[in-house]
Amino acid sequence: WLPLADGPESVLAHLGMSGQLLVRPEAAPDEKHLRIRVRFADETGTELRFVDQRTFGGLSLHPNAAGGLPDVIAHIARDPLDPEFDDAAFHAALRGSRTTIKRALLNQSLISGVGNIYADEALWRSRLHYERPTAGFTRPRTAELLGHVRAVLNAALDVGGTSFDSLYVNVNGESGYFARSLDAYGREDEPCRRCGTPIRRRPWMNRSSYFCPRCQRPPRP
Length: 221
Description:
A hairpin with a 2-residue loop joins strand 7 and strand 8 (207-211). The protein folds into two domains: 2-73, Alpha-Beta Barrel (N-terminal domain of MutM-like DNA repair proteins), CATH 3.20.190; 87-211, Helicase, Ruva Protein, domain 3 (Orthogonal Bundle), CATH 1.10.8.50. By secondary structure, it is of the alpha+beta class. The longest helix is centred in the last third of the chain and has 20 residues, at 139-158. It is built from four helices and eight strands, in the order ββββββααααββ. It has a three-stranded antiparallel beta sheet with strand order 1-2-6, with no helix packed on it. It has a three-stranded antiparallel beta sheet with strand order 3-5-4, with no helix packed on it. A two-stranded antiparallel ribbon has the order 7-8.
């Protein structure tokens, strides 16, 4: 979100499935799927472009809620790299949510910033099956999981994130290289880097879950 200097409102950017925010010189050729162009008053010759192939994303204007967030996203939890992220509150919410751990990691009202890829990676590092019930999590188990979530996110940030194609780039158009370091996601039938067992893939909520059947044993019925 982009707070506006002249009022209590913000521009909210939603990338959808294929949206991109790119910083470009004004003289640069237009991208094929350029939807919105934002120019600035500082006359630097630079503009912000919203490019979206599938048109699922967009920019919108919203009043700010408490804390300066646009009102429509004020319910979203902090991400685990935020210094104000409350580990104890997350553990309590996890225990009380009565769901399974991967669903909880993707629940933006509990924790934000963890997508399908990074959830699989953190669960592999934690030796947790994606269907593990959250009600039985102890404080040490939650702390260990959060440590692995943060380690995965930091490792991905260090190399620019995970880019599988040209749609996933930063504002300067540069790709990320974390895909080269993935331990679970996208490695179906390849050996687990820990025990050598072939990684498995299972359909999950219109996505896929990748896991090691030996290191991440499913919960008992």
